[in-house]
UniProtKB/TrEMBL annotation:
This is RING-type E3 ubiquitin transferase. Keywords: ANK repeat, Metal-binding, Repeat, Transferase, Ubl conjugation pathway, Zinc, Zinc-finger. InterPro entries: Ankyrin_rpt, Ankyrin_rpt-contain_sf, RING_XB3-like, Znf_RING, Znf_RING/FYVE/PHD. The keyword Zinc applies. It catalyses: S-ubiquitinyl-[E2 ubiquitin-conjugating enzyme]-L-cysteine + [acceptor protein]-L-lysine = [E2 ubiquitin-conjugating enzyme]-L-cysteine + N(6)-ubiquitinyl-[acceptor protein]-L-lysine. One of its GO terms (molecular function) is ubiquitin protein ligase activity. The lineage of its organism: Eukaryota, Viridiplantae, Streptophyta, Embryophyta, Tracheophyta. It is an enzyme of class 2 (transferase). It holds the Pfam family RING_XB3-XBAT31. It comes from the Eukaryota. ANK repeats lie at residues 46-78, 79-111, 113-145, 158-190, 195-227. Residues 324-373 form the RING-type domain. Residues 295-315 are annotated as: Disordered. Pathway: Protein modification; protein ubiquitination.
Length: 444
């Protein structure tokens, strides 16, 4: 990237820039006492200021010393790159945060490819920097002038969004964060890569299974074509990414898709979101196993190497009374509000994912609580009762609900719960143990 100091004007400048690069705060301050003008000098070739060098090398203390002397945080180098861009490129999160705090502009474009700091963080896979920039985007003037959604989908000179770059360069964490922040999953590039590529085309080209998985779980279209008429499946085949191709094959089973259009899903608190996301990925991994079973591809992701551990995690650790009354397999972790009924994350997710938008009308039917059929206003993490005292103190309706579920074991009437017909997919067990609707809804 040329952050070196090969060409400087004088030995004093060389000493100063070297001190900045090495993070020698004392020497930097000494140099600035001798000649405060040093702050406005730059290296000859790359036109790097001291602020650029400190940011690119993660020299937080030096960076702070310079910023405290009220230097403009958005100085430009030869390629019109700001210190914030260089810090994002090199993954120097502390410097990114300090620059943002100093009011660095997140909406500057460099002259090489017309990229922003968000592009650089996504391209190089620095998800912590990416997250810091997105957090700043909520509170800076950018949010007002551009709007947050537009910023997340900002295009570079070739029409690539940060999501395109993250997918192409195998950065699944960045793909995940960007999608969670409203990145458009089916946006086509202009000239970047093959024209008209979607993030799924680029992930197929990069051969990153985790990126493909994330994009599919966010509803990426396996049938969307690029400008030369290819679907992502063909791109993966051509590049010999067999496992990716298997998932991208339009003939293989469709994955569960994160139900982002649902209002209560977009308003989830972080804890509930984590639980549901984990359930989604787990359910999709089960599908993947079946898809890849017939092929010669093993799953390279470390997530798949410890199946035994996975089983332990999903095994209920608490007593039977905590079990989900739908699948009788997992522990209740999600509570429906306002009614207070509880179920496991897998069943919650299945409930939401089985209400896919009708492709003809793009209309999503909102799921209702499977126990009382009331509208779901919110989903929250169910409060776990870990000790006896907790049980005595909180004889809540949910506790009673669990008891009534136990009482109802063996009953075969499960009326009015048509939405639950598909839950058998999720649970391998418990098909003979169903709860009666009337008993479940019998709350005080
Ligand atoms: Zn369940
Ligand atoms: Zn309910």
């Amino acid at each position: 990237m040329g952050q070196g100091l090969s060409c400087t004007r004088s030995s004093r400048e060389h000493e100063f820039f070297s001190a900045v690069q090495a993070g020698d705060v004392e020497l930097v301050e000494l140099c600035l006492c001798r000649d405060p003008e040093m702050l406005h000098r730059s290296t000859i070739y790359d036109r790097l200021s001291a602020l650029h060098i400190a940011a690119a090398n993660g020299r937080l203390e030096v960076l702070s010393v310079i910023l405290e002397r009220s230097v403009n945080p958005d100085l430009l180098n030869r390629h019109k790159q700001t210190p914030l861009m260089l810090a994002s490129m090199h993954g120097k999160i502390a410097c990114v945060q300090r620059l943002l705090q100093a009011g660095a502009n997140i909406l500057m474009f460099d002259s090489l490819h017309g990229r922003t700091c968000l592009h650089f963080a996504a391209y190089y896979g620095h998800f912590d920097c990416l997250q810091a920039i997105l957090a700043a985007a909520h509170s800076t003037p950018v949010a007002d002038s551009w709007g947050f959604a537009r910023f997340v989908n900002v295009r570079d000179g070739n029409g690539a969004t940060p999501l395109h770059l993250a997918a192409r360069h195998r950065r699944p964490e960045c793909v995940h964060i960007l999608l969670g922040n409203g990145a458009l999953v089916c946006a086509s590039t202009g000239a970047y890569g093959y024209p008209g590529s979607t993030p799924l085309h680029l992930a197929a080209r990069g051969g990153c299974l985790d990126c493909v998985r994330e994009l599919l779980a966010w509803g990426a279209d396996r049938l969307q074509r690029d400008s030369s008429g290819r679907i992502p499946y063909m791109v993966a085949l051509k590049r010999n990414h067999g496992a990716c191709a298997a998932l991208l094959n339009p003939a293989s089973a469709e994955p569960l898709v994160w139900p982002s259009p649902l209002k209560f899903i977009s308003e989830l608190d972080p804890e509930a979101k984590l639980l549901l996301e984990a359930a989604l990925m787990e359910a999709n991994r089960e599908r993947e196993k079946n898809i890849l079973k017939g092929t010669s591809y093993s799953l390279p992701s470390p997530l798949h190497s410890d199946d035994g551990m996975d089983d332990n995690v999903s095994e209920p650790e608490t007593s039977d009374s905590e079990l989900c009354c739908i699948c009788f397999d997992q522990v209740c972790t999600i509570e429906v509000q306002d009614c207070g009924h509880q179920m496991c994350a897998h069943c919650t997710l299945a409930l939401c994912c089985h209400n896919k938008p009708n492709p003809a009308t793009l209309c999503t039917s909102t799921p209702v609580c499977p126990f009382c059929r009331s509208n779901i206003a919110r989903l929250v993490v169910a409060k776990m009762k870990t000790d006896d005292e907790g049980e005595k103190d909180a004889p809540s309706k949910t506790r009673r609900l669990r008891r009534s579920c136990n009482l109802s074991e063996g009953s075969s009437s499960f009326k009015g719960l048509s939405a639950l017909g598909s839950f058998g997919i999720i649970s391998g067990r418990g098909s003979g143990r169903r709860a009666s609707t009337s008993e479940i809804t019998d709350k005080p």
